[in-house]
Amino acid sequence: MNRIAFVSSLLLAAHVVAQTSLFLPPEYERAWGRGSTALLGGNATRTQLVYAAPFAPGTVVTGIRFRPTTSNLDRAAFTASIQISCSSGPNVPGTLSTTFALNHGNDLAVVLPQQTVNIPAMPANRGTGIMATIPFATPFVYGLNGNTNLVVEVQVFSRSAGASWSTDRAFASTNGRVANHGIGCGAGTIGGTTTAASYVAGGTFNVTLANAPANAPALLAPSFDQKELLPGVLLAFNLGQFGLAPNCDALVAGELGTIGFTADALGAVSVPVPIPATASQFGIGFQWLYLVPPTAINPLGVEITAARSAWVGPEVCTPFYQYVWDLSSATVATGNATTNSIPVAELILQ
């Protein structure tokens, strides 16, 4: 087996994993959204997340997870003073009041009294499954008052010095979007361009490789999964144990296989990716592997770029999800009601 084929075989993945949790919106579980200063992205914020009929009445919610959006920089750990309340509310997404209190139901409960919460460090090389977990002090039982909308309100009163976080979210847009993710090992870089249709059905975008060795063989690994390499094995996955340099990480699962190319005399490749006319609402990641001369720390002689994360739009969340937010105060009475947007989150269920 040659070097490229060997590394390619490491990028096969599956998607199904058992869990006692629910990721919302579900299409963002294995794909990246867009950044926001809501929730943990600001020093003083009030954010109200509303979900329409997320599960059966009587379901017990014991905590919540949030993640920072994609980045090419490591994010340091910090602490935040947080309070979380839950209720079963009367207002469906798309019709939320800008007054926070009016969206709550009569079963309103403080599930996490104000306290200091540790937010872990988030490396640049990570998958969508790496999140900050906030357990509730008191579990919340959903829907016993007859209302069908779960309301989770997060008040951030302060963050410690040096906090750096951009909360990942589903964002209201008629287009899709693209962003680079993580840090590659070696000189090769991933990039791309789009045609007149901006990452929507019927358009085409290009995924590019630059700064690779001239005329070097290269593999492009596409993937619909930027969460797990294998069931239960979260990305990023270090490939140093298989003969690459110690800091070479797989950032996509590669379950779609790989496509072989040869870089030109400038070490570049450009690959057009057509979007089917009927496609919408999905994320896909790409990562390049390319050959370099072997060294003592990289005996296999393969390097890997950062990832290129694309989202095919439009991004539409209502009638299922919506949020109300204020980015300047944790105690303000009114905020801004969004359309078709919500920070991505994973609800922990009993």
Quickly describe the structure.
The protein has 350 residues and is an all-beta fold.
What does this molecule look like?
The chain starts with a helix and ends with a strand. The chain is elongated, with a radius of gyration of 21 Å. By secondary structure, it is mainly beta. Helix content is about 0%, strand content about 45%. It folds into two domains: about 150 residues, Sandwich (Immunoglobulin-like); about 170 residues, Jelly Rolls (Sandwich). The N terminus is likely disordered.
CATH architect. name of the largest domain = Sandwich
In what order do the strands lie side by side in the largest sheet? 6-5-8-3-22-23
Strand coverage percent: 35-45%
Structural class: mainly beta
Which features would summarize this protein structure in a list?
Immunoglobulin-like, Jelly Rolls, about 350 residues, about 45% strand, 5-stranded antiparallel β-sheet, mainly beta, 6-stranded antiparallel β-sheet, 1 helix, 2 domains, single chain, 25 strands
Secondary structure: elements and pairs:
Blueprint: H1 3-9, E1 21-24, E2 34-36, E3 45-52, E4 60-66, E5 78-89, E6 109-119, E7 132-141, E8 149-159, E9 167-170, E10 177-181, E11 189-194, E12 204-210, E13 217-223, E14 228-230, E15 233-234, E16 237-238, E17 249-250, E18 259-262, E19 269-274, E20 282-291, E21 302-312, E22 321-326, E23 336-337, E24 342-343, E25 345-349
